[in-house]
Design a protein that fits this description.
The complex is a heterodimer. By secondary structure, chain A is an alpha+beta fold. Chain A has helices spanning about 15-25, 35-40, 80, 85-90, 90-95, 105, 110-120, 125-130, 150, 225-235, 240-250, 260-285, and strands at about 5-10, 30, 50-55, 65, 70-75, 135-140, 145-150, 155, 160, 165-175, 180-185, 195-205, 210-215, 225. Chain A has three domains: about 5-55, Uridine Diphospho-n-acetylenolpyruvylglucosamine Reductase, domain 2 (2-Layer Sandwich); about 65-175, 2-Layer Sandwich (Uridine Diphospho-n-acetylenolpyruvylglucosamine Reductase, domain 3); about 180-285, CO dehydrogenase flavoprotein, C-terminal domain (Enolase-like, domain 1, 2-Layer Sandwich). In chain A, helix 10 runs antiparallel to helix 11. The radius of gyration of chain B is 28 Å and the shape is globular. The chains are: A alpha+beta, B alpha+beta. The complex binds flavin-adenine dinucleotide.
């Protein structure tokens, strides 16, 4: 389990990194935290001729408030998100999700840019990007472009990035008016990728939901924002958990794998939706945060 | 105290080490990264080996083209089976069993491949990277043959044969019989039955398999460093195979990072490394990566059992019938044979119970999968699962509490020694004491109340018991594996005090995590009268003792400990004789303790160092005939071995949303005889239970119909981590055995009891839905299906 030979460079600017990818002519791969790339190299499932290490590029690791958005640099480690006070305050669902990402040792190295670009269908950050309608910003030979998260994820382990494009930052709009939220995930073991997972956030007025955001993962080959479920929640009150569970169940068509069947996943996501609804509603009602 | 070891006053005065929770001597080195494992070896100009493994589950090897690989950068040699065939003799896992076919073990797949992951070609290169690059350049032309993955299908008359010479895929078939079980079951008041299944497991160790064959051109000798727990067996087998005497073939198991059975057999790669090192006259090294280790190390626990147990009206079990089919994989392994696991299932099915008549039939069927071999508990995790499930099913049918039905059937204290229906003899052990102790420690009555409250609230809460007994520390009268011709019944201890007064104790046992450096030193400290810190324990080196096998089958405390005791006493007598000269006192008045010999009741002492000086270095002090070398060796054979037993109790709750099983309480009450080190015993129980929980809830090797491995990584082969393992309470019942020291073996027990206890707890939790558990592991998916089916039936 040793990688095939590859060349390595560690540029100190984004421009230089893009040029290095261009020079590799489609056979280059950037490396950020290496947590997903290294296993792929060792299994020889990916065989780049050039590995472009991003970690020497300054200023790609930050978490900052930009008006009604939170901007995160692509090299920001999972652990930095997990322990950020700004994230906890402005993006509480992300804050709740981060401890579910792998294990602490992996969170110390893995980066948000790497997680999004790797696009595992059961990874938390891609789902959060979809959930928050994040803007993923990439630089390539033609310059910079902004990509809506829902357009970014194409299928399992595939994004719309060109081979010589690099994600440098992500902007997450804050759901300012939402007061209730929940994040529910089940994985086989502590730290495993999710069997199913749902994120929910709601705004209530006069005891009814007036705006909702719903995203799920582990039940399709990309994370999904469930607009039908969001619609169904409008006007709902505290007794809608079971109905919401049923709607979410109806929105997904999961796959079977060696761990669990499609039926199991569908049942599970429904049960998690019910739990999430109850939790979000409690929070919106001023219950325990 | 056992017979012949009567307590002398001095014994009472001496500081006792046996029984103390002494911290493990090996831990400072292992926990600070200073262990020396096989992969840490750095012989001169070592070459690295990589194996091209089969992607086919069953195929004829039509042609292999290695020309490009041979020419690749850094490659020194490329070997196929043909290239090395003349250099060694295949190793045959022979047995005296009838109806058994021994498949030869060869260094590389010969003629055909029989499972995905089987080594076909070896590349030897300057480094592992270059070796793996060259693997890709090898062209193998296969002609696919029929694949047999299901043992029932493989046993059919028209199934494709894995070993044509065997004439059948049924590599072994046996039947155990006492009385007329069928008639007794027909006549029984009540009988319960089921088709039980345990799926394949990988006994994964943290350290993958690793070998380093160090070639010494000056002596034409090889030292094989191996991550094995049977270095002695490996030495003897390779000496035969390579026609090398033990003086030129040394096998050493250095620090070994766990085995659990996966390193307890001889492997083709061990043959290949030695053969190739000799041919190339170079040192060679190979360490399996995780993929290779999962795909090619011995697997286990793959059985289907049809069983039926009959009871009288009082809940007394009267007759048991079972038909066991073992999926043994593509080869019989050395030395245990493919019969080890499935035959052990039928041997132990009657368990600790007084069942009068029995029929147990077993067949071990070859399939296109890796060979099965030992895994902690061997056979008994499954036999206990089946028998304990049947006990609970009967308890339910008869309206008897599960605790009570066991009490009615366990062999009682006044009934030992007791021969169970399969022929195994249990010596006096705390069967009932463990049952009672587990119930008491768990507060069984309160748990049942808790369950009633949970049930009333619609929650799925269950309690599971499992009682079992095992044979441990087996002596020469019983073969560890059926009909196996090598002696697994004795172990040697060699204890020496050198001219500096230092004590070195050499054993053939081979600790791979059990803490034998600590526990054997505890035994020696007491019986020799030495200071614990002065004793160095050396093990796992074939140069250490004339013959040995290693550490397996819960034997090392009994056999190694017994040998240590006897050798210590012999050496103590020598010390006394020298001391009697030095102290001018009668031998009988000398007492040895704490590294000193003392004239009893006085303060006249000599240290071991002074004794050693007088014997070895000093020409004046002792008469020549009194200068006896301070060394003693003893080979101990417990003849029959000892029984060990336990009762496990688990309380679980099932989450209806995820179908996950949460273990709320776990209690083990075990009898391992006299405890040498309670901290180590607890650690062994914890580790064993963790693996049993893995077998019950998580772990499963999944092969598809074409024999491809689908669970080839630790993402897909789900072993529980520390977080998934509950707190485990351990209660010790110390009823001393009749062997030296009163010890019983206990390394495997945790794994034996846990699957059954968890399965029973799950079935109990789901009793309101009428669900029984017949298949392990109870994964979330299986539980989901069971619950769906039960609910749809309830609705009808
Ligand atoms: C045992 C284990 C368990 C895990 N469990 C989880 C889990 O439960 N949930 C979860 O979400 N993740 C999990 N992960 C993945 C982990 O979160 C990774 O850190 C993450 O997926 C990749 O981040 P990275 O920075 O290490 O990326 P790398 O491994 O360096 O790169 C991954 C891929 O992204 C590309 N890439 C990296 N950075 C960029 C960029 N800025 N622009 C364009 N392309 C880029 C690389 O070329 C490569 O193809 C697990 C990983 C392991 C090893």
């Amino acid at each position: 389990m040793k990688p095939a030979a590859f060349a390595y460079c560690a540029p100190t600017s984004l421009d230089e990194a893009v040029r290095a990818l261009q020079a590799a002519d489609g056979d280059g791969k950037v490396m950020a935290g290496g947590q997903s790339l290294m296993p792929l190299l060792n299994f020889r499932m990916t065989r780049p001729t050039m590995v472009v290490d991003l970690t020497k590029i300054p200023d790609l690791s930050f978490i900052e408030q930009r008006g009604d958005r939170v901007a995160i640099g692509a090299l920001t480690r999972h652990a930095d998100l997990e322990f950020s006070a700004l994230i906890a305050e402005r993006l509480p669902v992300m804050s709740a999700a981060m401890p579910h990402v792998a294990h602490l040792a992996i969170r110390n190295r893995g980066t948000i840019g790497g997680s999004l670009s790797h696009a595992d269908p059961a990874a938390e950050l891609p789902m959060l990007a979809v959930f928050y309608s994040a803007t993923i910003r990439a630089q390539g030979p033609a310059g910079r472009r902004d990509i809506a998260a829902e357009d970014f994820f194409v299928s399992a382990l595939a994004t719309c990035l060109d081979p010589d494009e690099i994600v440098f930052e992500i902007e997450f709009p804050v759901l300012e008016t939402h007061t209730g939220w929940a994040f529910e995930e089940v994985s086989r073991r502590f730290g495993d990728f999710a069997l199913a997972c749902i994120a929910l956030s709601i705004e209530t007025r006069d005891g009814a939901i007036v705006d909702a955001r719903v995203a799920v993962m582990g039940v399709a080959d990309t994370p999904l924002r469930l607009r039908d479920a969001e619609q169904a929640l409008l006007g709902a009150r505290g007794d809608a958990a079971a109905a919401f569970g049923a709607v979410v169940r109806g929105c997904v068509a999961p796959n079977s794998d060696i761990h669990v069947s499609a039926d199991y996943r569908r049942a599970l996501i429904g049960a998690l939706a019910e739990k999430a609804f109850t939790r979000a509603w409690q929070r919106a009602a001023g219950g325990p945060k | 105290m056992s017979k012949g070891d009567s307590v002398q006053p001095a014994d009472l005065l001496r500081p006792r080490h046996v029984g103390q929770p002494i911290r493990r001597t090996e831990d400072p080195r292992l926990l600070t990264g200073n262990g020396e494992y096989t992969a840490d070896r750095k012989p001169d100009r070592v070459l690295h080996v990589a194996f091209r493994r089969s992607e086919q589950a069953h195929a004829t090897i039509v042609a292999i083209d290695t020309a490009q690989a041979r020419a690749a950068p850094g490659v020194v040699a490329v070997f196929t089976a043909e290239d090395v065939a003349e250099l060694y003799k295949p190793i045959i896992p022979v047995s005296r069993m009838a109806n058994y076919y021994a498949t030869p073990i060869v260094a590389l797949a010969t003629g055909k491949v029989r499972y995905v992951g089987e080594a076909v070609v070896a590349v030897i290169a300057e480094d592992r990277y270059l070796a793996e690059d060259a693997l890709e350049l090898i062209e193998i032309d296969y002609a696919p043959l029929g694949v047999v993955t299901d043992p029932e299908d493989a046993a059919a008359a028209d199934a494709p044969l894995l070993h044509d010479e065997a004439g059948t895929n049924v590599l072994v078939a046996r039947e155990f019989k006492k009385g007329d079980a069928a008639a007794d079951i027909a006549a029984a008041h009540t009988s319960v039955r089921g088709r039980f299944r345990m799926t394949r497991k990988a006994p994964l160790a943290m350290e993958p398999r690793s070998y380093c064959a160090e070639f010494d051109g000056r002596r034409e000798a090889i030292t094989l460093y191996t991550s094995s727990n049977i270095p002695g067996i490996v030495r003897d087998a390779l000496a035969e195979s390579l026609d090398l005497p033990g003086s030129r073939l040394r096998v050493v198991a250095p620090d070994v990072g766990g085995s659990f059975g996966s390193k307890g057999s001889l492997y083709p790669e061990e043959i290949l490394l030695c053969v190739a090192a000799r041919k190339l006259r170079r040192s060679l090294k190979w360490t399996a990566d995780r993929l290779e280790d999962i795909a090619s190390s011995s697997q286990s626990f793959a059985e289907t059992i049809e069983a039926e147990l009959g009871f009288d009206a009082d809940g007394v079990a009267v007759a048991l019938q079972a038909d066991v089919t073992g999926d043994v994989g593509a080869y019989s392994i050395y030395p245990w044979t493919c019969a080890l696991e499935p035959v052990q299932v039928v041997s132990f099915l009657p368990g600790p119970y007084k069942i009068k008549s029995y029929r147990g039939a077993v067949r071990g069927v070859a399939t296109s999968k890796p060979p099965t071999g030992p895994y902690r508990g061997v056979g008994r995790p499954i036999s206990t699962f089946v028998t304990e499930r049947l006990m609970d099913m009967a308890a339910k049918a008869l309206g008897i509490d599960p605790l009570e039905i066991r009490r009615r059937n366990l062999v009682r204290d006044d009934e030992f020694p007791y021969r169970i229906a399969s022929g195994i003899i249990w010596d006096r052990t705390g069967f009932v004491a463990c049952l009672d102790a587990a119930a008491e420690a768990a507060n069984y009555a309160a748990l049942r109340q808790q369950q009633a409250a949970a049930r009333a609230a619609g929650r799925w809460f269950g309690i599971g018991l499992s009682s079992y007994a095992e044979l441990t520390g087996i002596g020469s009268r019983i073969a560890v594996a059926p009909g196996m011709p090598i002696n697994t019944g004795s172990e040697t201890a060699k204890i020496r005090i050198d001219s500096t007064g230092a004590i070195t104790a050499t054993f053939g046992v081979a600790s791979h995590g059990q803490g034998l450096e600590t526990t054997l030193a505890q035994v020696i400290a007491d019986d020799l009268g030495a200071r614990f810190d002065d004793i160095r324990v050396v093990q796992g080196d074939s140069d250490g003792v004339p013959m040995s096998t290693g550490t397996y089958a819960s034997r090392s405390a009994v056999l190694g400990g017994g040998a240590a005791k006897h050798a210590s006493v012999l050496l103590r007598e020598k010390i006394k004789r020298v001391a009697s000269h030095l102290l001018e006192a009668a031998v009988d008045d000398i007492d040895v303790a704490n590294g000193f010999a003392r004239v009893a009741g006085t303060d006249r002492t000599v240290s071991f160092k002074q004794v050693a000086k007088a014997v070895y270095s000093d020409m004046k002090t002792l008469p020549v005939e009194a200068r006896e070398e301070l060394e003693a060796s003893y080979t101990y054979d417990p003849i029959n071995g000892t029984t060990a037993c336990a009762t496990h109790l688990a309380a679980v709750e099932i989450d209806p949303a995820s179908c996950f099983v949460k273990v709320l309480k776990y209690v083990v009450a075990e009898d391992c005889g006299r405890i040498i080190n309670p901290m180590i015993v607890d650690g062994q129980v914890h580790g064993g239970v963790a693996q049993g929980i893995g077998a019950a809830l998580y772990e499963e090797m999944i092969y598809d119909d074409t024999g491809q491995l689908l669970s080839a990584s630790l993402v897909d082969y789900v072993i529980p981590s520390a977080v998934e393992i509950p707190h485990i309470d351990v209660v010790h019942i110390e009823s001393e055995s009749a062997v030296a020291g009163g010890f019983r073996g206990m390394g495997e027990g945790g794994t034996i009891g846990a699957p059954a206890a968890i399965a029973n707890a799950i079935a109990d939790a789901l009793a309101p839905l009428g669900i029984d558990v017949f298949e392990l592991p109870v994964t979330p998916e299986r539980l989901f299906r069971l619950i769906e089916i039960a609910r749809s039936q309830q609705q009808q």
